[in-house]
Amino acid sequence: MPVLLNADGSFSSRQELLDLQDCPFNGGPSLDTPSPVDSQTGSPIGSGPRSPGGPGPDGLSGALIFTRASMLPGQLYGEGNQPDTEVPLELTPKSSNSDQLCGWGALKPKVIQVFNTPRWVLFFLCVASFLQGMIVNGFINTVVTSIERRFDLPSYQAGLIASSYDIAACICLAFVSYFGGTGHKPRWLGWGVFIMALGSVVFALPHFTAPPYLVSLQEQIGMCSANSTSLCQNKEGGGLSSYRFVFMLGQFLHGIGATPLYTLGVTYLDENVSSNYGPVYIGIFYTAAVVGPAAGYLLGGYFLNIYTETHLTTEMTPEHPHWVGAWWIGFLAGGAAALLVAFPILGYPQKLPGSQEHVPRRVSEAHQLKDGSHTTASDPQFGKSVKDMPRSVLLLLKNPTFLFLCLAGATEATLIAGMSTFGPKFLESQFSLSASEAATMF
């Protein structure tokens, strides 16, 4: 209901209200009777078709009904020739949100705001997931036999190197998804991709710190005796097995960096697009993640046709049992590309412009349980402290759909992980294929 103010900003008696109704300025309807225009439109007072200062149905030049924000204390009713500013009740003007601009800290140029859309976010996240699949699920699996031969590693140590990724992801997954879910997701994603790039550089580091791999055809004739000479030790990479810890560190960094990508990345896309387009965006994102390993196998097989010491020439061919390809090139290239992708991801805001329009349309059904757990989960303060983490885990364990999806994913990973890691090596040893051919065929 609009409120009429007199000169001192308040009413002294009900009689004064009645006197104002009968004053010559008010030739319109009474206070208790809504105006015909407002009753027809059903809109807040002041938002009808009549504009301030325009002629009304009474022939007056100004609007006769004002909100509390239209007059200040000290102004008489109808006083002044300036048009009155009318603000609908319960509505506040929108202010420019600088925290939704794309940029890095105080640097937010207008020229890059064209990238501040969900489509460009999807593009950069797809590139990041493509690189993750290419490096971790592609290059790693193709170079297993090469690093075993180059650094004198048994198969169980090579399997431990490959498993370091999953160990790191298992350790960091709960904490990253829990605290990153309420934090600045693009920063978590950007720094994760940066750590993944660092892991690729660390993984390729043994090639530059280890002695050159030099094997001549004459040295390979015959078997080394029990008390082998230094020449045989150098040929077999004696003392280089300690580099397995460097490979494990690189894989550990891969696991830490890729953890936010498939948890917070999917959430960030889902929050900033409508519910109709959410599945399309997420489907494209996972498609890029699936194409990445395929590209990793093909590129890895191509790089293995190049001798590991690129600045030297050798008489060996890729079919020779002592051949070691340039396994490190893919990791340097993938790490450099991931570093370039991390920079634009770090510049995105916590919420994209227009994301508020999608919030009222979403109804969460994750905690609609009979015990009232959804009431606890809907509390705005719930989840901001580490003390709420056990309660959050308990709520998830009560969700049967979530549990069965987790079991399905674990079963798939169990079947694929071992086969993808040692599949190329099996083809290479069983069918006398080169490492490049085995990787390409697999």
From TrEMBL:
It comes from the Eukaryota. Pfam families: OATP. It is a multi-pass membrane protein. Keywords: Disulfide bond, Ion transport, Membrane, Transmembrane, Transmembrane helix, Transport. Residues 21-59, 357-384 are annotated as: Disordered. Residues 358-373 have a biased composition (Basic and acidic residues). The chain crosses the membrane at residues 120-140, 160-181, 188-208, 245-269, 281-304, 324-346, 401-422. It is found in: Cell membrane; Membrane. InterPro entries: MFS_dom, MFS_trans_sf, OATP. Residues 32-41 have a biased composition (Polar residues). Residues 121-442 form the Major facilitator superfamily (MFS) profile domain. PANTHER family: ORGANIC ANION TRANSPORTER, SOLUTE CARRIER ORGANIC ANION TRANSPORTER FAMILY MEMBER 4A1. Belongs to the organo anion transporter (TC 2.A.60) family. This is Solute carrier organic anion transporter family member. It comes from Ataeniobius toweri.
